[in-house]
Each structure stands twice: as C-alpha cells, then as structure tokens.
Amino acid sequence: MDSMMTRRGFLAAGASCAALAAIGTSTGCSSSQTEPLSSDASVTYTKATLCAGCANKCGIEAWVRGGKLWRFMGAEGHPHSGGYMCGRGQGLPSLTTSEDRVTEPMKADGKGGFAKVSWDDALADIASHITGAGSKVALFQDGRATDAWYAKRFMASVGSPNYYDDSALTNANIDAAYKALLGTTPVFDTANAEYIVLLDASGDETVRPVEVKEFQKVRENGGHVMAVDPRNAGADMLADEWVAVRPGYELAFLLGIMGDIVKKGDFDASFVEQYGEGFEEFHAAMLQYSPEWAAEKCGVSLDTIYSAERGLVKAAPHCHVDVRPGALLGCGYATSLETVRCAVLLNAMLGAVNQTGGMFLAKVPAVDESVFESAPFTKVSASGDGIAKAGELGNASCQDALGAAAKGAADVALFVECDPAADWADSAKVEENLSGIGFKVVIDSVLTETAQKADYVLPAATYLEVESVVAPVAAEWSVAEKRNQAVAPAGEARAVYQIFTDLAKACGKGDDFAFGLDDVNNAFCKAYGITLDGLNDTACCAIPGASVLAGDAPAIGTDSGKIPFASDAFEKAGLARVPQYADPTVAPNDHMPRLITGAQSMQTRTYTADADKIAALAKDSGAERAWLNPQTATNFGIADGDEAELSTSTGKIRVKVRVTSLINPEAVYVPPHYGIESKEMAQAAGYGASVWDIVPRASDAATGAGMVCEVPVEIRKVGA
Amino acid sequence: MARYGMVIDTTKCIGCGACRLACQNQNDLLSSMPFVKFSEVETGVYPTASLQVVPSQCMHCEDAPCQAVCPTGATYTNEDGIVCIDHGRCIGCKYCMAACPYQARVVDERTGAVDKCRFCTVSALNGTEMSTCVTACPAGVRVFGDLDDPDSEVSKVLAATHATPLLGDATKSKIFYVR
C-alpha cells in the first residue's frame, strides 16, 4: 500500500533546492512523496509542510491515506523540529476535519445567527464597505500568519496604514530588545552549552521538539541548566534546578549578577571593546547592583545567585541566558523589556556571542518590498499615521488600535485568524469595542467568539489545506520555509492569500494583485538564492550563506554595527541609556498574589482549544485549573480541587484550583486558552474560565506590550 | 517468537502529550480513546519541588487480569507476548475494563468494542515508518523491543537502569519504569 519516501531520505531530496546543490549541502526537510490530493483509498502519500501550532511553524510530514489526513511526524531537517513534533502539533490536525468548521461564507442575519451567502455576494458587499470607508479600515491578524504579506499589501492597496498583528500579546518586548540591541534574531546553542540560565520558560510552555534532546545533551555533557522562573513548567522540566524567583523581579536577579561580574572584572573585555559601545557608562551603572541587593529584591537566596554567576563566568563563553518567549518576558511585566535587555547584555559581556554553547546572531537576509515593484507587481503603499501610535522601540499595539477603531477611527475592521473576543485582555472592553465598530469581517475556520459578532464570516482553509508565502527562519543556518497543501480545502473554504486576492479585485484593486502565489514565492526564493521547486518538495531549504559558525565575527545589525551597552534608542523611548532597576508595577505577596499566565504545552490561545484530541487531553489533565502555592492556598482556606473566585480591577472569574509547590507563593497562574463561550466551538465551549476576563488592557509605552501580568488578584474560596 | 516489552524513562518525560496524540493518529482513534494516559506526581516541597509525568498504557501483562475475566476469549496473548483484542468477539461487557489495574482500556464508540494499546510500534522494528508513542516522542522516553533478546536495546536499557513495573510483580507487566 505504501509507496512513501521515508523521512530519512530528506538529504537526497533536499538537494532539489538547486542552489544548495551548488554549495554541496542541504538542510532541507523531508521530501514530499508526490501523488498529491488523490482520493483513491489505496494511495498513501506524504506532504512536507509546516505545523501551525505556534509561531515556530515546525517542518512536518503529513501522511494522507485515501484522501484523508492520517498521521504526522516532524521533519528532520527543520531547525525547530529536528524530526519530531510536540503534542500540540500532533493534536492540531483534527481542526481540519472538525465538524465545527465554517465551510461557506456566512452573513449575519440580524437575529444573532448567520445565513449562507455566495462568495461573490459576500465579497461584493464587503468591498463596498471597504471602499466606502476610505482609509478608515483596520486589519488585525494573528502573528503566526503565513499570509501577512498579502494582508499588508491589501491594506496598502486600499489606502490604509492600519495593519496590526497581535505581538503586543506575545513577544513585543523580546522583539524590541533584539532589534535595538542586536539588529537581528539570536539563537541559542543549547546542546553545546556548559551553563544555561533558562529564564521564564513558563511564559510559554512550548518546547521546540528539537530542543528536548538538546537540553538532555547539556546534562550528558556535564553541563548545567538553571531554570529561573516563578513557575516550574515547560522547558523548566528539562533543567537541573528550578529557582522560584518572585514574579516580576527577574530583572533584579540578572542585575545582581551583572553588577558583581563588573565589580570583579569577570567580563570579556576584549569582546565588549571590539563589538560593544557605551560599555564604560554601562560599567559604572552596574556597580550599584550586587547579589546581596538582588537577593533582597527577587527572593532568591544569595548562594543561588552566586551559583548562577559562578556557573556563567566559569563556563564563559560557552554559556548563555536563554530568553524564553511568551507571556512573562514577551508581554508580561512592566519590567520585561529591561529584563530582556539585561539578558542580552549579560550574554554579550560574557563574550558568549557566536561561541560554542552561546548566543548566535543569525544571518537572515532582508528582503524588502523593492523586490515587488516591477511586473507583475505594482508598487503599493499607504501613507499617513495609523490609528494607534507605535512605541519608539516596537509596533503599535493591536489593543490600542482596536480601542481607537471603536471610537470612530475605523468604520470597517477585518479580523484574520485572530480572536480578540477570546484572546485579548479585558474581555468586556473588547466586546464593547467590537460593538462600536460599524462593519466587521472575520476570516477564520471556526465560529470564534469574535466571529459571532461579525457581519460576515469568510471560511479560511486550514494550514493543512493551503500553500503559504515563503518566509525565513532564524537558525545557526537560517532556512526558508513554505507551507504546502496536504489535502483539499473543506467545502468552499479558501486560503487567506486567495481571499485577499479576491477581495482586492472586488474592491477594484485587481491590478495590484495581478499575480499568483508562485510569482510572490519565486521572488522571495530568488532573493534567498533557492528554488521554489525545492520548497514545494521539502517545505524548507537552507539559505546559502546564511550560516553562522562558532568564532565568526558577529553580524550585529544595529546602525552602528555594535551592541549598545548604553543605548540611544532606549533613551529616546523614555528609558535609561543603560539598564536600570525599577520595581514592577504590582508588588505581590502571598495574600494578594500577582496573576501570571502562559500558554500550556498543549495549547496556543483559544486557537487550538477546539481540536478534539487536544481538548480531550486538556480535560483529562485538569488543565483549566488555576495554580496556587500551598502557602497561598492556606491563606485563603483553599484546598486542592476547590473552586475559587479570582477578582481584579477588571472582573471576576471562577476556577478550580490546583494546589502545587511548583509555583511561587506570590503568583497565581491562570491558563490563557479556556472559558470559550462560542457554542459553535463544541469541543472547547464551557470548559474553564477566561483569564482575559480579569486582565486589564495596558500598553507598554516603548513597545506596545500588553503587560498582562501586572495584575494583583484577590482570591476567595467559593462557598466559604 | 519474541517477548516484547518497553522501558519508559519518566525522568526524560516533559508531558507534552506527543505520544498519546501520535498514537491516536496512527491508529485512527477517536478523541475519547486515549491509549496513553498521564499521571502527575509532584515530589519535594517548595521551593525545590519537581514534577514527574508518568505515562501509562496497556502493560501487556503476562498475568493479564483483563484476559482472565474476558467471557468470550476476545482478549488473548499472541505468540510474541502482546495482549490483543479480537474486536469481532468483544461483546462490550467491560469486565476487562474493571479488571485492569492500570485503567488502560477504552471503549470505541463506533463499534462498542473495547480497545487499548496494541504495541503497534512492533512494526517499526523492521524499519516500517510509524508514528507511535515510541517513534514520535521528542524526548526519547520509550525504548521498545524483545525482552528475551539480551542484545536488544530494551534489554540493555532495562539492565542498566533496573527499571521496574508500576505495580511490582502484581501482573507481570512488560512495561518497566525508570523513575
């Protein structure tokens, strides 16, 4: 029955990325076995494509049997998967076959329901609203999207600068720090490190599959991983020790170490002189911080802080502080940006840049829009300011934009595979905002809570049903990747890029979209020096010349080509030129703990919650429970399994409690992907509570980050 | 003939669920049919507590309570020591589910028959591409093979780790745990 190419055969197949053959190597993913889209029950084929379970977009192979999705494995050549998938990735495919799918365009019937409508009629009506709104159109898209190039072009074509992704609620602080300090994305050489400080991994429990064995290798090699995190979860389970830092005081932990390293002269003077700038100013500022001071602030013992410092210094440069993405460092605290700055600069002062076991500065070729200004493309650009102001170091906040849109700045809003009603802070305010926007279109594969409030819902094909725009992936050898179609779209569902093409034509902007996806991808491939045929076959190909080897001079992408230990950009953003301690906004204690959140290993926002096998695993695991330390629980008379009411200035929720010693007493953890009310998401509806009901809307002035963990929580046992 | 068994190293498990979900895809199982289940064991006290995730499934016991109580002979042990179910003979009485101390059995809502881990990963031993609890695990938690073959990887790991069954000798389980 099977005539599949084995996934072990990827090296030979990867050579179909012809440009790679010229350089004699390939890190392409496994090759597809090409009998695509057959419905013959006797035929089994594989398709090399990309997962959609999180922003990592791991390379995967989808097996299709008799025209139906069957099983899945990670692609060995993808830098994030290493031949494996996580549980979320294994469970997500059931979204494609879900009975909850929206498979035809729907129009609100004015009575709280929807009626089927043809694509032509839907596009014509939506287009009339968009063209009538002029530039007062806003578009919101999930940051994991592989169609962003089309969405942005569509907005520019219709004359609106109002494109917003949801990075404010994911990794805005990390993105901003990397850009300002390194001008590129760092990747960590986990497997070869001798010492790692793993920082705030519970902010997103996602562990790239390839990382699991890399962390194991650290231990096998005699190295050490110290997890510093208010909650012990996710990658922390791969560490040698867990250090239960006070939530929001990670900054003090790092500054204490940095201060002592400066005082003792244990930094890499040669590196900072050659590749840094402003180090003298930084040096002077760091002297005010000490491990003793840090211990008082962050609640970590002096011995442990010294242990981390000694571990890093002794191992340098084969060590690093690993900045983990997600709801703590990415968008959690008022001090998250400064914390990430310290992590990056600590790695730099140890000389752990482009060194074995350190932090590598990835080479990712920049491809600008000039590639798309000649036939068959037209030059499109939208002028003017957006409806939300961008911070000096980051993008404008999607939350700010939604609020502005509701106040009249936008007459039309499009929500593309994102669900503000279920996933953004302050659910009540989001609902109010959505009500204030005159015309709303949701493009998605299920009837999300936001879709329930829309005028139109356009059915999106899922990640296993579509091709995507080619995109780069930062790695020690950066690759280009592309999603490939494994099965035909359900019903009348269309790929998002196709929907924007069709909508542009309906808006009279067809000339700006007089090209096919292959034209776009060929342009990207040409810029990267690879071939589209190769990506169609293997889903990922190494970009020639985009490798970084240990000992290479770091390609620092800042304007000066140096790492700014004292930063003009930070100063311009209203921050100190050098790292500076500030208390977080909320001072938690075990009677009024700080709310912390972070995606669980099985979930990504509410997007994954309706996949039936993931939903079943979540329910079997009691994953909806809030975490409380035993000491904190005792203060409130709460026992494991009790129901508690959590109250903040924004709202109240009721949740079951897991009493666990895996969390700092000053924190209460609530998962961010439950409490879904849309009954059309049958697998997820009614399970757990929404953390977003109790998180106030906020925006970091410099980065737009949502500061979703700056929330004190009052706790009461239900029934007490 | 072989005597197939498995070692599960819980010190490597991070509870990602890939084993359970890959198994469900590979074997075309409904979401209500997890052949793999997880128990969480918290050890230590704050601030040095840690979590151990213990995956469990059919232990393919040599003294299988499920087989002993099956009134139709639907549950049997094949020549390689794999506890199997003849779904055509299963009448859905669920005696086996009550007898299994590991709660490893589930009902297939499509047929009414009881089902459980089939040690399907045996097919991967000869190089067949499989997406199973063994082959899909990113942490290398499981090692599978012939317990009677001293040169098999599973025998070597078992000897090196002194892994033990969850319930000691109670059912003569062929799944051994490193904890």
From TrEMBL, chain A:
<dbReference type="GO" id="GO:0016491">
    <property type="term" value="F:oxidoreductase activity"/>
</dbReference>
<dbReference type="InterPro" id="IPR006655">
    <property type="entry name" value="Mopterin_OxRdtase_prok_CS"/>
</dbReference>
<dbReference type="GO" id="GO:0043546">
    <property type="term" value="F:molybdopterin cofactor binding"/>
</dbReference>
<keyword id="KW-0411">Iron-sulfur</keyword>
<dbReference type="Pfam" id="PF04879">
    <property type="entry name" value="Molybdop_Fe4S4"/>
</dbReference>
<dbReference type="InterPro" id="IPR009010">
    <property type="entry name" value="Asp_de-COase-like_dom_sf"/>
</dbReference>
<dbReference type="InterPro" id="IPR050612">
    <property type="entry name" value="Prok_Mopterin_Oxidored"/>
</dbReference>
<keyword id="KW-0408">Iron</keyword>
<keyword id="KW-0560">Oxidoreductase</keyword>
<dbReference type="GO" id="GO:0051539">
    <property type="term" value="F:4 iron, 4 sulfur cluster binding"/>
</dbReference>
<comment type="similarity">
    <text>Belongs to the prokaryotic molybdopterin-containing oxidoreductase family.</text>
</comment>
<dbReference type="Pfam" id="PF01568">
    <property type="entry name" value="Molydop_binding"/>
</dbReference>
<dbReference type="Pfam" id="PF00384">
    <property type="entry name" value="Molybdopterin"/>
</dbReference>
<keyword id="KW-0732">Signal</keyword>
<dbReference type="InterPro" id="IPR006657">
    <property type="entry name" value="MoPterin_dinucl-bd_dom"/>
</dbReference>
<dbReference type="InterPro" id="IPR006963">
    <property type="entry name" value="Mopterin_OxRdtase_4Fe-4S_dom"/>
</dbReference>
<protein>
    <submittedName>
        <fullName>Molybdopterin oxidoreductase</fullName>
    </submittedName>
</protein>
<feature type="signal peptide">
    <location>
        <begin position="1"/>
        <end position="21"/>
    </location>
</feature>
<keyword id="KW-0500">Molybdenum</keyword>
<dbReference type="InterPro" id="IPR006656">
    <property type="entry name" value="Mopterin_OxRdtase"/>
</dbReference>
<dbReference type="InterPro" id="IPR006311">
    <property type="entry name" value="TAT_signal"/>
</dbReference>
<feature type="domain" description="4Fe-4S Mo/W bis-MGD-type">
    <location>
        <begin position="44"/>
        <end position="100"/>
    </location>
</feature>
Automatic annotation (TrEMBL), chain B:
<keyword id="KW-0408">Iron</keyword>
<dbReference type="InterPro" id="IPR017896">
    <property type="entry name" value="4Fe4S_Fe-S-bd"/>
</dbReference>
<dbReference type="Pfam" id="PF13247">
    <property type="entry name" value="Fer4_11"/>
</dbReference>
<dbReference type="Pfam" id="PF00037">
    <property type="entry name" value="Fer4"/>
</dbReference>
<protein>
    <submittedName>
        <fullName>4Fe-4S ferredoxin</fullName>
    </submittedName>
</protein>
<feature type="domain" description="4Fe-4S ferredoxin-type">
    <location>
        <begin position="81"/>
        <end position="110"/>
    </location>
</feature>
<dbReference type="InterPro" id="IPR017900">
    <property type="entry name" value="4Fe4S_Fe_S_CS"/>
</dbReference>
<feature type="domain" description="4Fe-4S ferredoxin-type">
    <location>
        <begin position="49"/>
        <end position="80"/>
    </location>
</feature>
<feature type="domain" description="4Fe-4S ferredoxin-type">
    <location>
        <begin position="4"/>
        <end position="35"/>
    </location>
</feature>
<keyword id="KW-0004">4Fe-4S</keyword>
<dbReference type="GO" id="GO:0051539">
    <property type="term" value="F:4 iron, 4 sulfur cluster binding"/>
</dbReference>
<dbReference type="GO" id="GO:0046872">
    <property type="term" value="F:metal ion binding"/>
</dbReference>
<dbReference type="InterPro" id="IPR050954">
    <property type="entry name" value="ET_IronSulfur_Cluster-Binding"/>
</dbReference>
<keyword id="KW-0411">Iron-sulfur</keyword>
<keyword id="KW-0479">Metal-binding</keyword>
